[in-house]
Amino acid sequence: MRETNTQIATHQLKCISKIKIFLLALLCAFVSKTLSGSFINSILTQLERQFNLSTSLVGLINGSFEIGNLLLMVFVSYFGTKMHRPMLIAIGCMTMGFGCFLQSLPHFLMDPYEYETTVSKTSNFSSNNFLCMRKETQIFTPTEEPSECTNEVKSSMWLYVLAGNIIRGIGETPIKPLGISYIEDFVKTENSPLYIGCLETGSIIGPLIGFLLGSFCVKMYVDVGSVNTDDLIITPADTRWVGAWWLGLLICAGANVLSGVPFLFLPKSLPKVGLETNMDIIEEDERNETKAEKGDITIDFLPLMKSLFCNRIYVLFLVTSILQFNAFVIMFSFLPKYMEQQYGVSASDAIFLMGIYNLPPICFGYLAGGFIMKKFKINMKQAAYIAFCISLLDYFLNMLCFLTICDNSPIAGLTVSYEGTQQDVYMERNVLADCNIDCNCQDKIWDPVCGDNNLSYMSACLAGCETYHGTGVNMSFQNCSCIKSSRNTSAFLGLCGSSSACSLMLQYFLILSALSSFIYSLAAIPGYMVFLRSIKPKEKALGVGLHMLCTRILAGIPAPIYFGVLIDSTCLHWGTLRCGKSGACRIYDSINFRTIYLGLSTTLRGVSYVPASFIVLILRKKIQSAESNTTVTELVVNRKENEDKEITRQSIHLKDVELQTKF
Q1: Which uninterrupted H or E stretch holds 468?
Q2: Could you tell me whether strands 571-576 and 582-588 are parallel, antiparallel, or unpaired per DSSP bridges?
Q3: Count of the separate structural domains present in the chain
């Protein structure tokens, strides 16, 4: 008997260590998969400029990840629980690594990046055709050669990125549903919220590293090492700049492959922690379960589906998640572009600020939510109230972002007149004026300069500049006829910087964003536990997988596409390729961009609180009914006990009377 107890204790120790090893491995898998996902989100604008795509097409690339998820989601969520779950997770991680590697291939197959400019990119200028050359003919003209257009656009190369993202989505499929179901099956019930909170924390650490990596890579020029960066006439703040997006993808590929290795050495199943079970009994149960699964692996699929869709709380939570996920995809995917266009920061700085201000608060919120659930033993009704009220508070706080506004950047001929007065950005624009009409300028080329009057111009020629000084990014232009300033009539490369008032608005926006992120994430764990506890244990893996499937079909895929179309409608000037075709958008109407970006996400989140309120009401009625039934049962039991006591007392009294009579 002593040996048996020792074996059980030793086995329990091994099980606890294995489940913790699994948790640690799954945490690394969450970090690596979210690392690659956030990095790709951070380089969307770089892909847009590299391949000269519209925002809607970039949205399709972003949504292709969800398409990959759809191909295997239901199959993996249902049948995966009956297979070797750690092995499937290992295969998924390595598949994600291959997808990231495939996405980086276009860089090695394409020629060096060519950006749109009228200025020579070498230090030896053979001509001054980028200046105002009055009564002369410009040398640079768009060509209609189909072969040159094909070589320049490289239209087929972005398909590698699309295919790689689909493969990455396929690989990500088994990680979350099988990982969470494995933990739910083999840990104590009260520890489950804390463990899931740790995993959600990993889902924040990964994006934090991903955004920092993205910020670092975007600062590096895309062709670093193969071109002389001293000859560049653009900086990372320029809308034509493309960073080294491919470098980060290679790092993500290696991280995903390595994260899958530990799962190769983990067992198919473990005894639930805390239960004293003999190993021989466990193995016998596994053999019996395997035999049963082979016989009816598909028989209970439809009944489980019916049971899930007859569960009112599950269906309402599904509708809430779809609406919220639409808003989340919009906010998360296009936040760097929004900050870049709204506040005039560079793509690298926008990615860095997004990671620093948003992700640590979310991390602390997830941890706090999981700790509160475990510490105070929050029941289902209380969790629903907490999630609803805190999320609603965050919603109203987030609406303050409408106050953090900046005006359009003043660009002569686009947003303001050449005299500096505001004009309707959607009226028929004419970038030519009396001061440059005889300069023979290309009126569609985007090569902006900033004048001494703090007014930007689309090119040095359109600013009326006749001479230049210096080379590369230090080039300056003089004798500019369109610049009316009390100091000089000179200009420098690049758009004019944002005003101090706009920089202050950026700080307010970042502070609101950080507070909103913390409050929203604080409600996430209680809300998710309501979702998990609303479904039966047998339905759990299928329910989680179906939830992920529906949110991807109705939010993850369409949201970036339809929002990309809306963003494209606010474009003020499209880039022009050498063959005359339109390239990526160079400048947006920041006012309409802000209205669409904040307005659409706010509307979607507002509608989501309708089904969420029904969840709270249903749980309230259900628990009140349960309490009422419990009270009635207790009354019946108490009445029965009182009656028994009274009968006993009367019997004793009668016996006493009888005894007294006898005496």
Answers
A1: strand 467-469
A2: antiparallel
A3: 1
pLDDT recorded at residue 166: 93
**Are residues 171 and 88 in contact, defined by beta-carbon separation less than 8 angstroms?**
no
Give the sign of the dihedral formed by CA 256, CA 257, CA 258, CA 261. Answer: positive
- In sequence order, which residues have a C-beta less than 8 Å from that of residue 191 and are 6 or more positions away? 273, 374
Residue 480 placed within a domain: no
> If DSSP codes are grouped into helix, strand and coil, which group holds residue 582?
strand
The Cα–Cα gap between 114 and 152 comes to 8
pLDDT of the residue at 281? 44
Which residues, including other chains, have CB under 8 Å from residue 23's CB and lie 6 or more apart?
183, 195, 198, 199
Q: CA-CA distance, 130 to 117, in Å (whole number)?
A: 9
Taking the CB of residue 338, how many other CB atoms lie within 10 A of it?
23
Are the beta carbons of 89 and 27 closer than 8 angstroms? no
Q: Which residues pair with 574 in a beta bridge?
A: 585
Phi, then psi, of 627 in degrees rounded to 5: -65, -35
* Cα atoms found within 13 Å of the Cα of residue 605, Cβ hemisphere only: 22
Rounded to the nearest 10 degrees, what angle do helices 192-219 and 245-260 cross at? 150
Distances (CA, A) of 590 to 55, 346, 410: 15, 15, 11
Q: Are 197 and 369 in contact (CB under 8 A)?
A: yes
Return the pLDDT at 276.
Answer: 45
pLDDT of residue 17: 65
Identity of the amino acid at 48: E
pLDDT at 655: 39
User: Domain for residue 147, yes or no?
Assistant: no
- Which among 168, 51, 62, 164 has a CA at the least distance from the CA of 110? 51
Residue 584 three-state SS: strand
Q: Is residue 395 part of a domain?
A: yes
* pLDDT given at position 612: 92
CATH number at residue 515: 1.20.1250.20
What does the alpha-carbon distance between residue 331 and residue 602 come to, in Å, rounded to a whole number?
A: 10
> Between helices 55-79 and 312-343, what is the axis angle to 10°?
150
pLDDT along the chain (663 residues), means of 10: 49 58 88 92 91 89 86 71 82 94 92 79 55 61 48 69 92 85 73 75 83 92 84 85 93 94 83 51 48 49 84 92 91 89 90 89 83 82 89 92 88 83 64 83 85 88 86 84 77 85 92 92 86 83 80 89 91 79 85 92 94 91 62 48 48 38 34
d(CA 206, CA 209): 5
Say which residue the tokens 């295919």 belong to: 163
DSSP 8-state code for residue 111: P
∠ CA 441-445-450, nearest 5°, is: 85
Angstrom distance (rounded) from CA 260 to CA 89: 7
Query: CB–CB of 286/517 below 8 Å?
Result: no
User: Which amino acid is it at 79?
Assistant: F
Q: How many residues does the chain have?
A: 663
Give the SS3 label for residue 418.
coil
In whole angstroms, what is the distance from residue 493 CA to residue 474 CA?
8
Which residues are CB-contacts of 600 (< 8 A; sequence separation ≥ 6)? 327, 330, 563, 566
Q: Which of 333, 274, 345, 281 is nearest to 509 (CA)?
A: 345
SS3 6: helix
Q: Which domain holds residue 104?
A: 17-137+152-279+319-407+500-618
Terminus-to-terminus CA distance in the chain, angstroms?
A: 61
Tell me, yes or no, whether 440 lies in a domain. Answer: no
Residues 6+ apart with CB under 8 A from 522: 365, 368, 369, 390
The single-letter code of the amino acid at 309 is F
CB 221 within 8 A of CB 247: no
Q: Is 572 helix (H, G, I), strand (E, B) or coil?
A: strand
Does this model's pTM top 0.85? My answer is no
